Amino acid sequence: MAWSSRLFLRKSLSALTTFLMLSSAAFAQQKTVIEFWHYFGGDHVNLIKEFIAEFQAKNPDIEIKQVFQGRPNELSQKLQSAFATTPANNPVLATVYENWTSDYVAKGLMDPVQNYIEGPDGFSKEEQEDFVKGFREANTWNGKWTTMPFNKSIYLLYANMDRLKKAGITTAPRTLSELRDAIIKCTESDGKRIKTYGIGVQPQSEAFTTLYFASGGDLLDAGGNPAFNNELGVSVLKFWQDLQYPDKHLYVDSNYMDAPFGNEQIAMFIYSSASFPYVQRSVGNRFEWIVAPVPGMEGKEPRYVMQGTNLGIFANRSEAERKAAWRFVKFLVQRENCVRWAMRTGYMPIRYSMLEDPKMKEFLASNPRYAVAASLVVQNKGKQEPSIAVWEGVRQDLGRMVDDVLNRKADPAKVLADTAKRASERIARARQMEERNKK
Q1: pLDDT value at position 13?
Q2: Does the CA dihedral 409-411-412-418 come out positive or negative?
Q3: What local confidence, expressed as pLDDT, does residue 20 receive?
Q4: Of the residues 24, 84, 121, 210, which has the maximum number of CB atoms within 10 A of its CB?
């Protein structure tokens, strides 16, 4: 080949390489990079990574960086710190609880998902109504659907049926009187020490709220003021205290109950459906165990405590980031992905149509415990705790109240009144601050 031809070829190749490099750089610059903060670990985060890989393959113009931020309280603290910096360095997307969202909404930090749901890349009316009504309502602020439900669980009664049958009980307790009877009959002693307690109880707020909701109670009235200082509230606290004093029928411990349940130290406990995989590992095949609705007072309309976080998009990020975040949120809550998430994690259905999916039908048939929990959700039997920003503090007050009743034999009526008073003061201070901020 002539020297001039080789020179021409080298120059052409060099020009082509430069062109490809510039094109690649330009393409990279076109990618929208978003951060997603969460608190998922273990298999949960592995599935999140799978979702991200699948989403990015279909959306090569978006890159998602998922960031584990520790436990929920750590995630909350890191979000607050990120908002407080100048300029703010928060992500565009995060898992958020309702009471966090109330604070963010008040500060103008949320970009409501309704802005996208009703847009060209949104959901039809039929698709919107496919999301469980209770979740839609719990994710609505100021009349706008603000956050998207995601990982949800419901509280249930876990029962060792072998132990109950040994005590002459063939079905799970349905009322508080039946629960009391079962707890007493399932508490077994050798005369020196208790071998099996009737039930395990964590001295936390849920020991109160689960029975209170199941008995038709409301934590706040229509005006947003504490409504739990009543006869029902006292009855719930006395229910637990009377089983602890003078004779102990309760295994009281702040740790999770799957281990004592698995080793048959307790016959029953109340906890969320999120505990399914842990209980299964703890119990193995040693005995038959079931789950059932949390017992309540006979004749009352029961509701069951729902917990878990939602997906929130923050308004202070660029429009490109927010639109990309919405596309990812929409991908995550597609029915087939919701089914995968539920089957892999044990979290509850967030869409009614999930129960029509063939894979989900097969899963429900082979997982009767999950089916019990899911049926309560789709029947709209779940109930969220109040979403006001100060509720986390109230929840801690309720936890101390339960601890005082169980471990220090506090007078139920007095400690309930004191807790309601503190809750009223918290709410009043929050309202005063909100009014000052408006001026």
Answers
A1: 54
A2: negative
A3: 53
A4: 210
